[in-house]
Amino acid sequence: MGKIKIAIIGVGNCASSLIQGIYYYTGKNEEDAIGLMHWDIDGYKPEDIEVVAAFDIDKRKVGKDLSEAIFAPPNCTKIFCENIPWMDVEVAMGPVLDGVASHMKEYDEKYTFSVADEEPVDVVEVLEDSGAEILLNYLPVGSEKATRYYAKCALEAGTAFINNIPVFIASNPKWASRFEKAGLPLIGDDIKAQIGATITHRTLTQLFKNRGVRLDRTYQLNTGGNTDFLNMLNRDRLHSKKKSKTEAVQSILGDERLDPENIHIGPSDYVAWQKDNKVCYLRMEGRIFGDVPMNLEVRLSVEDSPNSAGCVIDAIRCCKLALKRGIAGPLTSISAYTMKHPPIQYPDEKAAKLVDKFISGEIER
């Protein structure tokens, strides 16, 4: 059957969790493979994914083998698979562009980026030489120029693109059209977690709606101690992120969308000692039978990066399936299932069924 050859932009916590997961599940069977939404997708299991290229800008990662770079500072995610073999993939220097927020320079190097002095590589050339079929974007939130640059490189190199951050590529009709014309699959935008703030908020919102409860106002407050949360202290980089997370909840409400002043969703603060642990506080205020007020509060604590890898591992295999079938452009089912801001929003239960139908070949995308 062969391997699914992927390239990764940004060797941070999310990339670390994904790569650890590939090796963690190697040799396991379906019965003891805890934490996967799909064990087998068209014959492909997690161990069938192979990373053949990687790009970063940090001097502690650039030039190192990927097996070492995924554990280099400022990465701080949980190590659940220590025995990562030498991968023979040297982390290449990418262009910086807007990938580093200016305020990051104010923090100790162990918490943030330390930009390498090397010249950026020719990204298209690296992708072509590596044989990468799919390019994954794990750039920091707010990397608008850098994301567009790498999306363009994917088009030139003939690789599919999975956009895991809130820069709108798959959900932008112009970009979607470019990938379709190039004959390349596209998945995005902004990765959900398996059980994270967004999926929990959406599920509870759907519950309110199904049970006839009028939602009047809600907030979602998140704190964390990884580089992602440190990067997001710059509010200028959060426009797309807030839009993505807010729309993920508003879309469930349909015609009963909340006024902007009654919904607040977004990162709240950086707490260094939390590291990759994300804590989410949800409050929902509504009215039940007889217009009687009620409210619900939830606290969720979860390791952030493994939580996202649980969705990316499915997105990669569905993307490979599209490549095999010659399907181009946005993959609407897996995007709705795994992304906060997909081209088409579906309720999560429907999105899950559509993904199963896509895998079985009942629907095209």
Automatic annotation (TrEMBL):
<dbReference type="InterPro" id="IPR036291">
    <property type="entry name" value="NAD(P)-bd_dom_sf"/>
</dbReference>
<dbReference type="Pfam" id="PF01658">
    <property type="entry name" value="Inos-1-P_synth"/>
</dbReference>
<dbReference type="GO" id="GO:0004512">
    <property type="term" value="F:inositol-3-phosphate synthase activity"/>
</dbReference>
<dbReference type="InterPro" id="IPR002587">
    <property type="entry name" value="Myo-inos-1-P_Synthase"/>
</dbReference>
<dbReference type="GO" id="GO:0006021">
    <property type="term" value="P:inositol biosynthetic process"/>
</dbReference>
<feature type="domain" description="Myo-inositol-1-phosphate synthase GAPDH-like">
    <location>
        <begin position="196"/>
        <end position="305"/>
    </location>
</feature>
<comment type="similarity">
    <text>Belongs to the myo-inositol 1-phosphate synthase family.</text>
</comment>
<protein>
    <submittedName>
        <fullName>Inositol-3-phosphate synthase</fullName>
    </submittedName>
</protein>
<dbReference type="GO" id="GO:0008654">
    <property type="term" value="P:phospholipid biosynthetic process"/>
</dbReference>
<dbReference type="InterPro" id="IPR013021">
    <property type="entry name" value="Myo-inos-1-P_Synthase_GAPDH"/>
</dbReference>
<dbReference type="InterPro" id="IPR052199">
    <property type="entry name" value="MIPS"/>
</dbReference>
